[in-house]
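Lab meeting, item 3. Inverse folding demo.
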């Protein structure tokens, strides 16, 4: 018989051996964190993935509470999260290695002098010299592209070579 100040009797509706979420958290948080720390070698990451696993378990607690071992589900999720984090970090590192700027040495003094000498040439002579010597185009192709006679291209090349020789030769050197 129940007295006037006694709480009402509640029927036991669930299995008595099933721990609640709070009990699961208290019982397994530290041991899972230690396991994940050993796996990740980073205490902060270990704590984050274990907490994330428990958050996911809490969101699904009605279903997970019915499992034979809810801690196994939380452990598997925590390990998967740590593995996924490691994979993302590895992928990012590979991407960064591919995107890293490669060291390019400064141009040597001869190249700088040639660039400056080419810059000083009139545009048509510069174009003819570059197309002939650097692009390996024959005179007839340069003439066709520019819509001029081949003799005109040969003249531009001759004048361009003379101007380059004058600019690139040192003092007292003879240019032919």
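The presenter then showed the designed sequence:
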């Amino acid at each position: 018989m129940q007295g006037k100040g006694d709480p009402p009797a509640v029927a036991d509706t669930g299995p008595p051996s099933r721990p609640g979420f709070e009990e699961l958290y208290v019982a397994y948080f530290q041991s899972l964190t230690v396991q994940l720390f050993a796996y990740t070698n980073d205490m902060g990451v270990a704590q984050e993935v274990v907490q994330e696993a428990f958050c996911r378990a809490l969101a699904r607690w009605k279903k997970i509470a019915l499992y034979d071992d809810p801690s196994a589900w939380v452990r598997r999720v925590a390990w998967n999260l740590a593995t996924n984090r490691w994979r993302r970090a590895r992928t990012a590192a590979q991407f960064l290695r591919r995107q890293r700027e490669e060291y390019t040495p400064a141009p040597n003094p001869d190249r700088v002098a040639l660039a400056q000498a080419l810059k000083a040439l009139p545009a048509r002579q510069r174009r003819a010299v570059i197309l002939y010597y650097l692009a390996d185009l024959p005179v007839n192709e340069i003439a066709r592209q520019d819509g001029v006679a081949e003799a005109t291209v040969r003249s531009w090349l001759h004048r361009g070579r003379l101007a380059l020789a004058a600019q690139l030769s040192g003092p007292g050197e003879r240019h032919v």
